[in-house]
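step: validate -> pass
step: tokenize input -> pass
step: predict -> running
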Amino acid sequence: MTSTIRILLVAAAASATLAACATKPKPGPALAEAPPAAPAAPVTEMPPGPTAPVGPVRGSQEDLAATAGDRIYFALDSQAIEPEAHETLRAQAAWLAANPDVRARIAGNADERGTREYNLALGARRAAATRQVLVGLGVSASRLETISYGKERPLDPSSTEEAWARNRNAQTVVIGLATQ
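step: predict -> pass
step: emit ->
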């Protein structure tokens, strides 16, 4: 016999020996028969309906973004509010009026071109212009604060015209409850 066949025969014999040594579980005591189940109560149909609120939580950042939009965009080297941005700011003012307990921070942003100092100043002007429009639309100035991130927090890190256009913005961010 070859050594390979001999190894296979030894392995098969070992397996058979181990299988023969395995113990079978002992049968347990007989189970008493359970009494017949009572007839089931009739199932009543519940009208379909949500079990939890659907959509964003009222007064949250997600609610602002979905309801009014939370960001406006600017032209190159400008803090002028464009007509399309006025529509978004009107919607934000209405949202803030419907959520009088919310405070917001307006973050001004710039694209990567220009110095850090220039872009921080431009972001501050964009945030201030956005705040001024919201206050003019009836939002209490005490509920709004501004900050400039300049070019430090780009939406799109690419160095393309499209990325730069997205990064020139002011975002309204829900920061908490107003203390009035």
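step: describe -> Residues 116-136 form the longest helix (21 residues).
step: cleanup -> pass
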